[in-house]
Amino acid sequence: MTSTEETLADLADEHLARLVAVPWESFAADIERRGAHPSGETTGLEVGGAYYDVSDSVRWESSHGGDILLTIEAYTDPSFPPQRSVRRTAVIPRPAGA
Length: 98
Fold this sequence. Notes:
The chain is built from two helices and four strands. It is elongated. Strand 3 and strand 4 (85-92) form a beta hairpin. By secondary structure, it is of the alpha+beta class. The protein has a four-stranded antiparallel β-sheet.
């Protein structure tokens, strides 16, 4: 694994670790509020003089109001090909009684 790939993996893993702690209800409200529009954010940051983007998105995994699929993607600056990326996913289960 190259230094760039290691950085991408670290960024994706760190972002995923932060977001899996967010309550299901918060993600569900965001999905409902945005309706058909994608739900998520992209953040740009610099690490060791290189620019990276880290994006997150959430959607219903298989049915409306059920479990939520969280996807994280860390990628290199698209202005400088070849673009590389690392993707991580996690399922945020719907809590009982929600």
